[in-house]
Amino acid sequence: MAIPSKRPTSPHLQVYKLPLTGLVSITHRITGVLLSLGLVLVVWLLSVLVSGQQAYADMQAIMALMVFKVMYWGFIYALFFHLCHGIRHLLWDAGLSFEHAKLNQYVLIELAASWLLTLLTFILV
Amino acid sequence: MAYQAPLAKVRGLGSAKSGTAHWWMQRVTAFALVPLTFWLICFLTMGLNAPYRETLVWLAEPVHTVAIVAWLLLACYHGALGLQVVIEDYAGENIKIIAVWAVNLSFLLLALAAVIAVLRIVLAG
Questions:
Q1: Chain A interface with B: residues with Cβ < 8 Å
Q2: Which of A6, A76, B47, B93 is the most exposed place for a label (fewest CB within 10 A)?
Q3: CB of A69 closer than 8 Å to CB of A114
Protein backbone atom coordinates (compact mmCIF):
# COMPACT_ATOMS: atom_id res chain seq x y z
CA MET A 1 0.00 0.00 0.00
CA ALA A 2 2.65 2.49 1.02
CA ILE A 3 4.72 3.07 -2.09
CA PRO A 4 8.11 4.52 -1.20
CA SER A 5 8.30 7.64 -3.27
CA LYS A 6 10.30 10.82 -3.56
CA ARG A 7 7.39 12.65 -5.13
CA PRO A 8 6.85 16.07 -3.64
CA THR A 9 3.83 16.69 -1.47
CA SER A 10 1.67 19.61 -2.47
CA PRO A 11 3.55 22.89 -2.13
CA HIS A 12 2.73 24.50 1.17
CA LEU A 13 3.08 27.91 2.70
CA GLN A 14 6.62 28.81 1.83
CA VAL A 15 6.11 28.70 -1.93
CA TYR A 16 3.58 31.45 -2.48
CA LYS A 17 2.99 35.03 -1.54
CA LEU A 18 -0.42 34.38 -0.06
CA PRO A 19 -3.39 36.54 -1.00
CA LEU A 20 -5.80 37.61 1.75
CA THR A 21 -8.00 34.56 1.17
CA GLY A 22 -4.98 32.29 1.48
CA LEU A 23 -3.87 33.93 4.72
CA VAL A 24 -7.33 33.43 6.19
CA SER A 25 -7.36 29.83 4.99
CA ILE A 26 -4.09 28.90 6.69
CA THR A 27 -5.10 30.86 9.80
CA HIS A 28 -8.23 28.71 9.91
CA ARG A 29 -6.06 25.62 9.96
CA ILE A 30 -3.61 27.00 12.54
CA THR A 31 -6.43 28.13 14.84
CA GLY A 32 -7.99 24.69 14.44
CA VAL A 33 -4.81 22.99 15.67
CA LEU A 34 -4.46 25.46 18.54
CA LEU A 35 -8.10 25.02 19.53
CA SER A 36 -7.48 21.26 19.79
CA LEU A 37 -4.99 22.13 22.52
CA GLY A 38 -7.55 24.49 24.03
CA LEU A 39 -9.94 21.56 24.20
CA VAL A 40 -7.49 19.84 26.56
CA LEU A 41 -7.61 22.95 28.77
CA VAL A 42 -11.42 22.85 28.86
CA VAL A 43 -11.24 19.25 30.09
CA TRP A 44 -8.62 20.38 32.62
CA LEU A 45 -11.14 22.96 33.90
CA LEU A 46 -13.66 20.14 34.34
CA SER A 47 -11.13 18.03 36.25
CA VAL A 48 -10.44 21.02 38.52
CA LEU A 49 -14.17 21.22 39.25
CA VAL A 50 -14.11 17.54 40.20
CA SER A 51 -11.08 18.07 42.46
CA GLY A 52 -12.95 20.47 44.74
CA GLN A 53 -13.05 23.99 46.06
CA GLN A 54 -9.36 24.42 46.87
CA ALA A 55 -8.19 23.30 43.42
CA TYR A 56 -10.82 25.60 41.90
CA ALA A 57 -9.57 28.60 43.87
CA ASP A 58 -5.96 27.81 42.88
CA MET A 59 -6.98 27.56 39.22
CA GLN A 60 -8.76 30.93 39.36
CA ALA A 61 -5.70 32.50 40.98
CA ILE A 62 -3.45 31.16 38.21
CA MET A 63 -5.85 32.24 35.47
CA ALA A 64 -5.97 35.76 36.95
CA LEU A 65 -2.29 36.24 36.01
CA MET A 66 -1.88 38.60 33.07
CA VAL A 67 0.06 36.11 30.93
CA PHE A 68 -2.71 33.52 31.19
CA LYS A 69 -5.41 36.14 30.68
CA VAL A 70 -3.78 37.14 27.40
CA MET A 71 -3.54 33.47 26.38
CA TYR A 72 -7.18 32.95 27.34
CA TRP A 73 -8.40 35.82 25.17
CA GLY A 74 -6.15 34.61 22.39
CA PHE A 75 -7.99 31.30 22.54
CA ILE A 76 -11.36 33.07 22.57
CA TYR A 77 -10.40 35.06 19.46
CA ALA A 78 -9.09 31.89 17.77
CA LEU A 79 -12.41 30.21 18.56
CA PHE A 80 -14.48 32.99 17.01
CA PHE A 81 -12.18 33.29 13.99
CA HIS A 82 -12.42 29.54 13.39
CA LEU A 83 -16.21 29.72 13.84
CA CYS A 84 -16.63 32.63 11.40
CA HIS A 85 -14.43 31.14 8.69
CA GLY A 86 -16.06 27.78 9.38
CA ILE A 87 -19.43 29.28 8.50
CA ARG A 88 -17.81 30.55 5.30
CA HIS A 89 -16.76 26.98 4.51
CA LEU A 90 -20.33 25.80 5.10
CA LEU A 91 -21.55 28.49 2.67
CA TRP A 92 -19.01 27.32 0.11
CA ASP A 93 -20.14 23.73 0.61
CA ALA A 94 -23.68 24.87 -0.08
CA GLY A 95 -22.39 26.27 -3.38
CA LEU A 96 -22.68 29.92 -2.32
CA SER A 97 -20.39 32.94 -2.44
CA PHE A 98 -17.80 31.78 -4.98
CA GLU A 99 -17.99 35.04 -6.94
CA HIS A 100 -14.61 36.68 -7.31
CA ALA A 101 -15.83 40.02 -6.02
CA LYS A 102 -17.09 38.42 -2.82
CA LEU A 103 -13.87 36.63 -1.86
CA ASN A 104 -12.10 39.53 -0.18
CA GLN A 105 -15.35 41.12 0.91
CA TYR A 106 -16.28 38.02 2.91
CA VAL A 107 -12.83 37.89 4.49
CA LEU A 108 -13.39 41.39 5.85
CA ILE A 109 -16.82 40.37 7.15
CA GLU A 110 -15.31 37.31 8.85
CA LEU A 111 -12.56 39.36 10.49
CA ALA A 112 -15.01 42.03 11.65
CA ALA A 113 -17.44 39.42 12.99
CA SER A 114 -14.73 37.52 14.90
CA TRP A 115 -13.44 40.72 16.53
CA LEU A 116 -16.98 41.84 17.32
CA LEU A 117 -17.85 38.50 18.95
CA THR A 118 -14.66 38.60 21.01
CA LEU A 119 -15.42 42.17 22.07
CA LEU A 120 -19.02 41.29 22.96
CA THR A 121 -17.79 38.35 25.04
CA PHE A 122 -15.33 40.63 26.80
CA ILE A 123 -17.96 43.28 27.56
CA LEU A 124 -21.09 41.23 28.22
CA VAL A 125 -19.89 38.22 30.19
CA MET B 1 -4.88 -9.30 -24.00
CA ALA B 2 -7.40 -8.36 -21.37
CA TYR B 3 -11.05 -8.22 -22.36
CA GLN B 4 -12.02 -6.31 -19.25
CA ALA B 5 -13.20 -2.74 -19.55
CA PRO B 6 -11.75 -0.23 -17.05
CA LEU B 7 -15.19 0.12 -15.43
CA ALA B 8 -15.47 -3.61 -14.84
CA LYS B 9 -11.99 -3.57 -13.37
CA VAL B 10 -12.93 -0.81 -10.96
CA ARG B 11 -16.11 -2.65 -9.98
CA GLY B 12 -14.08 -5.75 -9.38
CA LEU B 13 -11.88 -3.90 -6.96
CA GLY B 14 -14.85 -2.68 -5.02
CA SER B 15 -15.37 0.68 -3.40
CA ALA B 16 -13.13 2.22 -0.78
CA LYS B 17 -16.10 1.91 1.60
CA SER B 18 -15.72 5.07 3.63
CA GLY B 19 -16.40 7.47 0.77
CA THR B 20 -17.23 10.98 1.85
CA ALA B 21 -18.04 10.14 5.47
CA HIS B 22 -15.01 11.95 6.89
CA TRP B 23 -15.69 15.15 4.95
CA TRP B 24 -19.39 14.99 5.73
CA MET B 25 -19.01 14.47 9.48
CA GLN B 26 -16.57 17.38 9.63
CA ARG B 27 -19.42 19.58 8.33
CA VAL B 28 -22.13 18.03 10.49
CA THR B 29 -20.08 18.53 13.68
CA ALA B 30 -19.14 22.08 12.59
CA PHE B 31 -22.78 22.97 12.06
CA ALA B 32 -23.78 21.64 15.48
CA LEU B 33 -20.86 23.31 17.24
CA VAL B 34 -21.83 26.81 16.07
CA PRO B 35 -24.79 27.30 18.48
CA LEU B 36 -23.14 25.20 21.23
CA THR B 37 -20.29 27.72 21.35
CA PHE B 38 -22.64 29.92 23.38
CA TRP B 39 -22.65 27.39 26.24
CA LEU B 40 -18.91 26.90 26.07
CA ILE B 41 -18.36 30.66 26.48
CA CYS B 42 -20.81 30.73 29.41
CA PHE B 43 -19.08 27.80 31.05
CA LEU B 44 -15.58 29.25 30.61
CA THR B 45 -16.69 32.64 31.89
CA MET B 46 -18.22 31.08 34.98
CA GLY B 47 -15.25 28.82 35.57
CA LEU B 48 -12.83 31.73 35.53
CA ASN B 49 -14.93 34.20 37.51
CA ALA B 50 -17.80 32.67 39.49
CA PRO B 51 -17.58 31.09 42.94
CA TYR B 52 -17.18 27.29 43.06
CA ARG B 53 -20.74 26.51 44.15
CA GLU B 54 -22.27 28.75 41.48
CA THR B 55 -20.38 27.05 38.66
CA LEU B 56 -21.43 23.61 39.90
CA VAL B 57 -25.09 24.64 40.10
CA TRP B 58 -24.91 26.15 36.61
CA LEU B 59 -23.38 22.98 35.14
CA ALA B 60 -25.96 20.78 36.90
CA GLU B 61 -28.86 22.54 35.12
CA PRO B 62 -30.10 19.84 32.69
CA VAL B 63 -29.97 22.07 29.60
CA HIS B 64 -26.45 23.24 30.46
CA THR B 65 -25.27 19.69 31.19
CA VAL B 66 -26.57 18.42 27.85
CA ALA B 67 -25.16 21.41 25.94
CA ILE B 68 -21.70 21.11 27.52
CA VAL B 69 -21.51 17.33 27.06
CA ALA B 70 -22.69 17.73 23.45
CA TRP B 71 -20.07 20.43 22.87
CA LEU B 72 -17.32 18.24 24.39
CA LEU B 73 -18.18 15.17 22.31
CA LEU B 74 -18.65 17.09 19.07
CA ALA B 75 -15.50 19.16 19.63
CA CYS B 76 -13.45 16.01 20.22
CA TYR B 77 -14.84 14.43 17.07
CA HIS B 78 -14.42 17.62 15.03
CA GLY B 79 -10.87 18.10 16.33
CA ALA B 80 -9.85 14.53 15.56
CA LEU B 81 -11.22 14.80 12.01
CA GLY B 82 -9.46 18.13 11.49
CA LEU B 83 -6.08 17.06 12.85
CA GLN B 84 -6.25 13.94 10.68
CA VAL B 85 -6.45 16.14 7.58
CA VAL B 86 -3.56 18.28 8.77
CA ILE B 87 -1.43 15.18 9.40
CA GLU B 88 -2.31 13.69 6.02
CA ASP B 89 -1.29 16.91 4.31
CA TYR B 90 2.09 17.36 5.95
CA ALA B 91 3.33 14.08 7.46
CA GLY B 92 5.42 11.52 5.60
CA GLU B 93 4.02 8.11 4.68
CA ASN B 94 5.69 6.25 7.51
CA ILE B 95 4.42 8.28 10.42
CA LYS B 96 1.07 9.18 8.88
CA ILE B 97 -0.89 6.13 10.03
CA ILE B 98 0.61 6.08 13.52
CA ALA B 99 0.03 9.80 13.96
CA VAL B 100 -3.62 9.53 12.89
CA TRP B 101 -4.13 6.59 15.24
CA ALA B 102 -2.50 8.52 18.07
CA VAL B 103 -4.72 11.54 17.41
CA ASN B 104 -7.90 9.48 17.27
CA LEU B 105 -7.11 7.53 20.42
CA SER B 106 -6.05 10.69 22.28
CA PHE B 107 -9.31 12.42 21.43
CA LEU B 108 -11.28 9.33 22.40
CA LEU B 109 -9.59 9.32 25.82
CA LEU B 110 -10.12 13.07 26.15
CA ALA B 111 -13.83 12.70 25.36
CA LEU B 112 -14.14 9.90 27.93
CA ALA B 113 -12.32 11.92 30.58
CA ALA B 114 -14.52 14.93 29.86
CA VAL B 115 -17.81 13.05 30.05
CA ILE B 116 -16.80 11.20 33.22
CA ALA B 117 -15.78 14.50 34.83
CA VAL B 118 -19.12 16.13 33.97
CA LEU B 119 -21.01 13.11 35.32
CA ARG B 120 -19.03 13.18 38.56
CA ILE B 121 -19.75 16.89 38.99
CA VAL B 122 -23.44 16.63 38.16
CA LEU B 123 -24.14 13.45 40.13
CA ALA B 124 -22.29 14.73 43.19
CA GLY B 125 -24.84 17.58 43.07
A1: 2, 4-5, 9-10, 12, 29, 32-33, 35-36, 39-40, 42-43, 45-50, 53, 56-57, 59-60, 63, 72, 76, 79, 83, 86-87, 89-90, 93, 121, 125
A2: A6
A3: no
Task: Report how many domains make up chain B.
Answer: 1
B41, B48, B83 ranked by CB distance to A36: nearest = B83
pLDDT 10s digits, B9-21: 666 666 666 768 8
Residue of A nearest to B40 (CA): A42
Quick one: CA dihedral B59, B65, B69, B70, positive or negative?
Answer: negative
Angle in degrees, 0-180, between the axes of helices B52-60 and B21-49, rounded to the nearest 10: 140
Q: For residue B60, is it within any domain?
A: yes
Which pTM value belongs to this model? Answer: 0.87
- Residue A40: give its domain's CATH number: 1.20.1300.10
ipTM value, please give it: 0.86
Contact, B29 vs A34, CB < 8 A?
Answer: no
Residues listed for chain A = 125
